[in-house]
């Protein structure tokens, strides 16, 4: 397409928006609402998954060894554990460390309890590896792997907690996808109506253009430009609103709910919006482009 044709398409696309201002504003408003909700869900989802990851890092798997196993055997088991990509951390817990932690958690006076036992460590055979995973949903397969390692006496894990976290993660993901999909379909429907009205208003003009040899691409271009402009405007507005809202919320929580902030690490705005901005712009422009493309293919048979 020549530069003059591109200029014509942009000019006509802008004119179409002015001619059908009410429907154009309705389309922009719907895309704004759609992408605003999308941004909210994305922000909640990113922070929720960060919180889940923090919880996952506290869910540990303990691997206990056969009695009489050598230090070399323990080291070999540790090396086999680290070959697995799902492993987040792997720490060795010595019998002395295990007894100290147990006494701290069990007795009111742990120092007195340890003194009473003296050099006789009741957990002398409790050396272990304490392991955390990157994703709790992989726990069942990883535990099965651990149980198959030679020299492993027992594997202690919390399968119920891991399964619960995985189920919550999946539910939030599916629910978010369903709601966003519905909003996108509504946005495309409204753009469809806006473009259809523009085609109806210019039907006679389009017929003349076709009679004098205008190609389908040349006729469609202004309507596609119209859809893209609507999508672009509809994606910029929610990004601005979301940025200030998100920044205000995390600053408010940091100032008023210090306990919550210590338990929950919010994703910084820069990190969140470095991914949200391109995604939202692509979605907004994509909705406008494909909505207008589908409409023109359907209605421009003149």
Q: How does this structure look, described?
A:
There is one protein chain. Helices cover 74% and strands 8% of the residues. It is α+β, with helices and mostly antiparallel strands and 302 residues long. Strands 2-3-1-4 form a four-stranded antiparallel β-sheet. Helix 1 (3-19) crosses helix 9 (216-256), helix 2 (21-56) crosses helix 9 and helix 7 packs across helix 9 (216-256). The longest helix has 43 residues, at 159-201. The two termini are 22 Å apart.
Descriptive tags:
alpha+beta; 302 residues; 11 helices; 4-stranded antiparallel β-sheet; elongated
Short description:
The chain has eleven helices and four strands. By secondary structure, the protein is α+β, with helices and mostly antiparallel strands.
């Amino acid at each position: 397409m020549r530069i003059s044709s591109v200029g014509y398409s942009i000019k006509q696309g802008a004119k179409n928006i002015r001619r059908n201002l009410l429907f154009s504003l309705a389309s922009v408003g719907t895309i704004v609402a759609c992408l605003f909700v999308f941004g909210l869900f994305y922000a909640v989802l990113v922070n929720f998954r960060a919180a889940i990851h923090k919880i996952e890092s506290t869910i540990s798997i303990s691997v206990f060894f056969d009695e009489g196993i050598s230090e070399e055997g323990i080291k070999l088991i540790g090396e086999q554990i680290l070959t697995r990509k799902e492993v987040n951390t792997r720490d060795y817990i010595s019998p002395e460390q295990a007894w100290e932690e147990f006494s701290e958690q069990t007795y009111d006076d742990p120092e007195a309890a340890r003194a009473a036992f003296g050099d006789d460590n009741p957990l002398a055979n409790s050396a272990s590896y304490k392991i955390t995973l990157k994703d709790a949903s992989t726990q069942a397969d990883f535990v099965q792997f651990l149980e198959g390692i030679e020299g492993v006496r027992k594997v202690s894990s919390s399968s119920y907690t891991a399964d619960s976290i995985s189920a919550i993660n999946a539910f939030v993901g599916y629910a978010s996808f369903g709601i966003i999909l519905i909003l996108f379909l509504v946005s495309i429907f409204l753009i469809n109506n806006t473009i259809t009205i523009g085609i109806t208003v210019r039907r006679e003009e389009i017929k003349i253009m076709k009679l004098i040899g205008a190609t389908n691409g040349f006729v469609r271009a202004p309507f596609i430009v119209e859809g893209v402009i609507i999508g672009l405007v509809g994606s910029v507005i929610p990004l601005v609103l979301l940025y200030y809202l998100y920044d205000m919320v995390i600053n408010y929580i940091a100032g008023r709910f210090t306990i919550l902030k210590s338990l929950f690490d919010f994703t910084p705005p820069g990190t969140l919006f470095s991914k949200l901005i391109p995604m939202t712009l692509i979605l907004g422009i994509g909705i406008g482009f494909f909505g207008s493309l589908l409409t023109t293919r359907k209605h421009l048979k003149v």
